[in-house]
Design brief:
- This protein is of the alpha/beta class.
- It is 40% helix and 19% strand.
- The chain is built from 13 helices and 14 strands.
- Strands 5, 6, 7, 10, 11, 12, 13 and 14 form an eight-stranded mixed sheet that branches. Strands 1-2-3 form a three-stranded antiparallel sheet, with no helix packed on it.
- Helix 7 packs antiparallel against helix 10.
- The protein starts with 15 loop residues before the first strand and ends with a strand.
Length: 416
């Protein structure tokens, strides 16, 4: 459609961009991390100028003048309008059309009894079975490499597992540590319910959010333990279901749910997202967050104690995020990866002594320069179980071009 020359262009919503190759050409892929726009769009880098100007202030005339000043050629108006139309069609602009779409998506999600899998919907219609079989084969391979039987074949030796700290990086990158963490956990857990405390990577109104929805996974639907969930929710001064929409596309619990369903589809879960406890690092007061996290840790501890061996805890948490792709000014080389590993192990050492405050203190003293996204769930779970953890493994994913690195670890705590 034609865009008036002197009206502001639409405002682009927050998006994620990354480099891809399409038929041998370097392109820029653009996707919506909140998944209201379900399509991933690709642009040649030269076309980014048009999208970058969509700030709700710049006019088409200003864009055209800027383009001509920079290139010495008139802006290809028809091509730019086609690009903007495609972005509008797929709900990438923050406008009334998107507002109505978001409302419909949110209402449909809230009304559904089951949370659809947000990150395992990549299969073409009719090809799901093959995709899920491929996923199972990949996980089987990781578990065999780590010395475990695959899937439900893992036999529980005892019921000593109390709490687990495990990654939420994707399986392809972190599969070896995923297998080591959950293989050890399932080998030592015979209970019925896993309380999953995951990182909320999105802006949220409340420090703790819960949902009553069962979780759909490629390996079946995991039901929620309503009794344990209600006990935990009732112990909080806030209503954790008020912010339920944060669960719609968050991957930290979804990936843990997929792994649990792969191993023991009979288990029930209690999904809990916790937000950024920035005040623990900055030293600023935040009474609501302090109270919510303290109450949550106490409620999780009581759920374990009252559960008589039937309830265990999982912190779904990654560690450091460094490099240019995480807004640092440097690229990641072998030396930076080595230093990060040393810092990670030093940071995790207090947990092996049963001292979660020491873990938080280490991150605070670093001013969280390494962007530890699992700070809050690790702190809550470690505080709840009040037991020393044993290190099972540590690893990193490093971008092949050195643009960034993510580290993650597996630790387990036993019952007395």
């Amino acid at each position: 459609m034609p865009y008036p020359m002197d009206h502001p262009l639409p405002s682009l919503r927050y998006v994620e961009t990354f480099n891809v190759e399409v038929e041998g050409r370097g392109m820029i892929a653009i996707k919506d991390p909140r998944r209201y726009a379900t399509a991933m769009l690709t642009l040649e880098s030269g076309a980014l100028f048009a999208v970058a100007a969509c700030d709700g202030k710049t006019t088409m005339r200003q864009l055209a003048e800027s383009y001509e000043s920079r290139t010495g050629h008139p802006m290809p108006m028809a091509a730019v309008e086609r690009i903007l139309d495609v972005f509008d069609q797929h709900y990438f602009f923050d406008n009334p059309r998107f507002g109505e779409h978001r409302k419909q998506v949110d209402e449909a999600w809230l009304a559904a009894p089951v949370r659809p899998a947000a990150h395992f919907d990549y299969a073409e219609p009719g090809a799901e079975a093959a995709a899920w079989a491929e996923l199972r084969a990949m996980l089987d391979g990781f578990f065999r490499e780590e010395g475990f039987a695959p899937g439900p074949e893992i036999a529980s030796e005892d019921n000593s597992a109390l709490a687990l700290i495990a990654p939420h990086i994707d399986f392809l990158r972190g599969g070896r540590i995923w297998a080591r963490a959950y293989g050890e956990f399932i080998r030592h857990f015979r209970g019925r319910t896993v309380v999953i405390v995951g990182t909320n990577h999105q802006p949220s109104k409340l420090p703790v959010s819960m949902t009553r929805k069962a979780f759909a996974t490629p390996f079946g639907i995991l039901k929620v333990d309503d009794v344990v969930q209600d006990d935990i929710a009732s112990a909080l001064a806030i209503d954790p279901f008020e912010d339920e929409l944060t669960h719609r596309v968050e991957h930290s619990i979804e990936l843990a749910a997929v792994m649990i369903a792969y191993l023991r589809p009979d288990l029930r879960i209690v999904p809990i997202l916790v937000g950024d406890a920035r005040h623990l690092i900055d030293g600023e007061e935040d009474e609501e967050t302090d109270e919510a996290l303290a109450d949550l840790a106490t409620a999780c501890r009581e759920a374990v104690e009252d559960g008589d061996g039937e309830v265990a805890l999982v912190a779904s948490a990654d560690l450091a995020h460094i490099g240019e792709m995480f807004d640092d000014t440097f690229r990641v080389d072998d030396e930076k990866a080595r230093i990060n590993r040393e810092r990670d192990l030093e940071m995790l050492a207090p947990l092996t002594e049963g001292e979660p405050e020491g873990f938080v203190r280490f991150v605070a003293e670093e001013r969280d320069v390494r962007k530890v996204c699992g700070l809050t769930p690790i702190y809550v779970v470690a505080s709840a179980c009040a037991r020393p953890f044993r290190m099972l493994g540590h690893d990193t994913w490093v971008d092949p071009n050195g643009a960034g690195m993510v580290s993650y670890a597996a630790l387990i705590a036993r019952r007395e």
